[in-house]
Amino acid sequence: MPTLRQLLAEARPLLAATPFGAPPREALLLLGHVLGWSEAQVLARGEAEVPAAEESRFRVLLARRLTGEPTAYLLGEREFWRRPFHVDSRVLIPRPETEHLIEEALAEPLPARPWILDVGTGSGILAVTLALEIPRARAVATDLSPGALAVAAKNARRLGARVRLVGTDLTAGLDLGRFDLVVSNPPYIDLAEAPSLSPEVSDFEPALALFAPGSGDSVLARLFAQCAALRPGVRLAVEIGFGQLGAARRHAEASGLEIIRVRNDYAGIPRVLVLQRRREERG
């Protein structure tokens, strides 16, 4: 039977040689996942032998990773806002920059028992996090994908969050006048950009959650138009793609919304907008 050290020595250069540059550290994650051990335990027990069944499982996971399948899907989990969320190929993998959306939402003054709407919830990271972080919040989350809603429901159960899930296109059929805060991370990538994406993204993450028809801002335009029905003073916090601030300003103007804050991501790129209905001028 091979030792832990031998399996890691074999896997690390294979990962490093992938065209998408998989970090060699992922060998530790995959082997630890198979054995039920932490990274520290795997490193500390390098001379331990790996039983045949676990070796076979590790080699299967490694082979899938070498094709580009994301590690988060192989592990079935990704951390967001210090909590472990289940993820699989039915939903996007949470990105660190989306935590800025949570930060902006938590900065908003809200009533004692706020109604919060998460549009296009995916794995449920926004709705579940806000339901847990805001005392007495009543969270509603929508998605067009039944698979995504199933994942979101699983995360809500696992983490103990009360979230009502609704299968619909954006906010269709909902009374927006009841909500005190709306958040959304909508699809915002132009399909024409697909060839430039890493195969980890384009070949494995769900196209419905990635791509927006047209130039990538069409879903944003529809969301803004629908959010014109929000009550005065109610905020919409939304994530946008690279280079979309100008388009977002145009769509906001056309929908009677105004951008009141722009939050840059870790790379200095405008990533999160906070909007509200534009104040009417008094004549």
Task: Provide an overview of this structure.
The chain is an alpha/beta fold and 283 residues long. It has two domains: 4-67, Ubiquitin-associated (UBA) domain (Helicase, Ruva Protein, domain 3); 78-277, Rossmann fold. Helices cover 38% and strands 19% of the residues. The chain has twelve helices and eleven strands. It has a seven-stranded mixed β-sheet with strand order 5-4-3-6-9-11-10, sandwiched between helices. A two-stranded antiparallel sheet has the order 1-2. Strands 7-8 form a two-stranded parallel sheet. Helix 8 links the parallel strand 4 and strand 5 (163-167). Helix 1 (4-16) runs parallel beside helix 4 (52-66) and helix 11 (218-226) packs parallel to helix 12 (245-254). The radius of gyration is 21 Å and the shape is elongated. The relative contact order is 0.11.
Classified in CATH, the superfamily of the largest domain is: Vaccinia Virus protein VP39
Measured as a percent range, the helix fraction is 25-40%
Order of helices and strands: HHHHHEEHEHEHEEEHHEHEHEE
Overall pLDDT level: 95
Fill in the CATH topology of the largest domain.
Rossmann fold
Q: In summary, what is this structure?
A:
With 283 residues, the chain is of the alpha/beta class.
Secondary-structure map:
Blueprint (H helix, E strand, L loop, with lengths): L3 H13 L9 H10 L3 H6 L7 H15 L4 H5 L1 E4 L2 E4 L12 H8 L8 E5 L5 H9 L4 E6 L2 H14 L3 E5 L13 E4 L4 E2 L8 H4 L4 H4 E2 L5 H9 L8 E5 L5 H10 L2 E8 L5 E8 L6
Parallel strand pairs: 3-4, 3-6, 4-5, 6-9, 7-8
Antiparallel strand pairs: 1-2, 9-11, 10-11
